[in-house]
């Protein structure tokens, strides 16, 4: 049986250390690109193949060690509000996941605001280079997905990922909640609870931002209901008023509503509807600030962790720039119960109707 080519064989042939050979074959940027190319070419010519058992053991060893400081990454607030990392009802969850995962991997963040009027492509590139920042995570795209044109020259030199939505101009690797599947799950839960005419009320801007995955999941989930009970989604806009909502309610007659924002709850209260006695409510982004509203827990913090993993993986593989085929990671949601929906028949403990006057957007 022919002897397997080892790292030491390649090192002896080229005159490098075994550690240099190992780093080069892992695309570590510490090794110059020309040297990496030469080592890879030689390894291929010598029919080198990594030992999968050794590789697995080394990966376990590295994972079991507490990493020291590795490098700095850029955490970029892509929201229009410069304080969105603290003020927004959703974005802080992404941020906490990003910070937690970066800390676990031995990285630190420098924060930037994407819409800083003082930040130009040239100045930002200079700052990133001076601070040794080679990776970037975008957080907070909540009203648009297109990135500013003035930064087109920034992305090619960095390992990048976005979290929350898919970007455009350019399209970067991204992680987000599986919006389509979570609405399908919500429909299945509504059916299990005995609802017959659920309806989706969704802001049109938000649904467009996630490429209609909310409404698409709703239309798929509706297939489990009888055709006469399949209500079209209601798309609201900034001009949509409570009177419009009242007319829709009287015409559509839903027995349950899927929502994202608490404005719908305030409308229901003003119109005298009792939840869940008169109508049920399921929130498509459950928040611990309102535990009495049943809904789908999106775990946006895990989406933040995944974005950091994507950037670090790119750094380890020596990858930068906008990939031809950007990868995406979708995070599954889980159901969280609450008194805004009726009890299942197997439960004996009654619930009281809840008031919505204390809810905030």
Indicate the CATH topology of the domain at 179-297: Rossmann fold
Measured on Cα atoms, how large is the radius of gyration?
25 Å
The helix/strand series, from N terminus to C terminus, equals: HHHHEHHEHEEEHEHHEHEHEEHEE
The percentage of residues in β strands lies in 15-25%
Mean of residue pLDDT values: 88
The CATH architecture of the domain at 179-297 would be 3-Layer(aba) Sandwich
Poorly predicted sequence stretches spanning 5 or more consecutive residues: 346-353, 356-361
What overall geometry do the principal axes of the alpha carbons give?
Answer: elongated
Largest sheet: 6 strands, parallel
With strands numbered from the N-terminus, the spatial order across the biggest sheet is 2-1-3-4-5-11
Number of strands: 12
> How far from one another are the termini?
70 Å
Helical content stands at 25-40%
CATH class of the domain at 179-297: Alpha Beta
Task: Please tally the helical runs, counting DSSP H or I stretches of 4 or more residues.
Answer: 13
CATH superfamily of the domain at 179-297: Response regulator
């Amino acid at each position: 049986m022919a002897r397997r080519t080892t790292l030491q064989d390649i090192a002896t042939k080229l005159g490098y250390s075994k550690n240099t050979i190992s780093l080069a074959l892992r695309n570590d940027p510490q090794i110059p690109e020309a040297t990496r190319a030469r080592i890879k070419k030689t390894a291929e010519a010598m029919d080198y193949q990594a030992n999968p058992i050794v590789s697995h053991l080394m990966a376990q060893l590295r994972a079991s060690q507490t990493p020291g400081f590795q490098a700095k990454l850029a955490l970029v607030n892509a929201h229009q509000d410069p304080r969105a990392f603290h003020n927004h009802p959703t974005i802080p969850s992404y941020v906490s996941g990003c910070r937690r995962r970066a800390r676990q991997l031995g990285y630190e963040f420098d924060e930037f605001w994407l819409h800083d009027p003082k930040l130009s492509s040239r100045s930002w590139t200079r700052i990133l280079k001076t601070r040794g920042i080679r990776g970037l995570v975008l957080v907070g795209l909540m009203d648009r997905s297109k990135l500013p044109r003035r930064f087109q020259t920034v992305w090619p030199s960095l390992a990048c990922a976005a979290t929350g939505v898919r970007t455009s101009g350019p399209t970067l690797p991204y992680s987000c909640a599986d919006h389509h599947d979570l609405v399908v799950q919500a429909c299945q839960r509504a059916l299990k609870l005995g609802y017959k005419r659920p309806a989706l009320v969704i802001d049109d801007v938000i649904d467009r931002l996630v490429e209609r995955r909310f409404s698409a999941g709703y239309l798929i989930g509706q297939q489990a209901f009888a055709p006469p009970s399949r209500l079209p989604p209601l798309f609201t806009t900034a001009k949509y008023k409570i009177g419009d909502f009242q007319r829709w309610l009287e015409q559509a007659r839903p027995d349950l509503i899927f929502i994202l924002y608490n404005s719908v709850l305030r409308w229901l209260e003003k119109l005298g509807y009792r939840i869940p006695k008169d109508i049920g409510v399921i929130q498509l982004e459950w928040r611990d600030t309102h535990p009495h509203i049943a809904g789908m827990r999106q775990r946006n913090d895990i989406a933040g962790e995944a974005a950091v993993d994507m950037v670090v993986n790119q750094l380890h593989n020596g990858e930068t720039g906008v990939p031809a085929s950007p990868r995406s990671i979708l995070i599954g949601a889980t159901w969280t119960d609450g008194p805004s929906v009726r009890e299942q028949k197997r439960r004996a403990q009654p619930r009281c109707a809840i008031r919505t006057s204390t809810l905030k957007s």
